[in-house]
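Example 419, ligand iron/sulfur cluster.
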Amino acid sequence: MSQTPQILYCHCNYAQVVPKEVKEAVLRKLCESGVPFEAVADLCEMSARRDPALQRLTQGNAIKIAACYPRAVKWLFAAANAPLPLDRTEVVNMRAETADNVVASLLSMELKPNVPTGKVTASDAPAAETAQA
Amino acid sequence: MALADQSTLRIVLYEGAGATALAGEERFSVLSTLLGQGYAVTRAGSERAVAPADKSSVLVLGRFGAEKPETTTDSSGQVSVRFENLEDTAPEHVIAKVDGVRTTAGAVKQGDWKPWFPVIDYDRCTNCMQCLSFCLFGVYGVDGGQRIQVQNNDNCKTNCPACSRVCPEAAIMFPKYKAGPINGDVVSDKDLNREKMKIDISALLGGDVYHMLRERSEKAQSRFSKERDAEKALSERQKCLVKLAQSGDIPAEVLMSLPSPDEIARRAEEAKAKANAALAAQAPKT
Ligand code: SF4
Ligand code: SF4
């Protein structure tokens, strides 16, 4: 299987938290580049729906996700029973980066995994006693 | 029907063999229209992998000329694959075609609900159950292993991040919140120690804070109802609610829609009992 990372773009549809000009410029540049990619309206809504598409996205190649904070994205996927492969996921933060930087990261063949390491799923979570010990 | 049980429609924008490619600007226009209406779109191509098919219905959009393919099923025979021709269709008219297919496929319309709900960072969570005790709307529950879980996402009160203030570990995120660390930004030691991250838990258990806030808002209402100048009363009340909302980070709409004090007490007892049962089940068996 090719190891070229998949690209996933989140449009963050139902809130103004990702600047409109950033998300639009990122989408426009992805479209102009001609690369294949996945685009979703709102990862938060998909997570709430436990959308199976999230599981598929985690099962293939390495993945680059244009969305928001890596910590939030990690646990949104986990909440939908679709834990991200921590060593094969790069989240590019459209709340904090410029559109040019986001697109450069997405199109680069180099993957820079940046999702917080630690537990992978909720079931790794400790019982209260262990955590408090 | 629960959100998780509703089926969705996956759209594939196909520009390979047998179809004419769209220009970059047209592609952007079609994609942004569809995303704006809540659809997920795969822009397929041979240079990079995209996600494989699952059980969602699939609609393939493309410029197929006179040769639009007929509806078919995937190799498993379970997924129906429909086609719509973008030939002679302006990007702004694509949505009508797609909505029609969504209805036929029995897929849900996304975007009718603002996805506002807590997301737990299990790297931080210690399973203390304070969030479960606190929430009066049944958002939290426990899984088979007695671990805290967000179960009823759509019960959460839009724009209310109050439970994230209750969590002693700053483990509760609301990705659409304006500021960190609640929005998922890195948690600093400063955040953990900051006064406004903490709410007196003893005051919260039993729903006292809701009770208190409601009483305050009711008192405010009765005081203002004596006012002759209705407009002034309204603006005063708004000011009061804004203040409450700012101090506790609880939106005015949430304050105004709280149930009666008796109902609050009942729900708080229920939530506390659920949390206690989960904690008791975790206790080491001796
Ligand atoms: S994952 Fe982040 S960018 Fe995507 S919809 Fe949720 S808050 Fe918005
Ligand atoms: S209050 Fe925080 S640490 Fe405690 S169970 Fe809830 S999320 Fe976990």
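Summary: Chain A touches chain B through 68 residues (CB under 8 Å).
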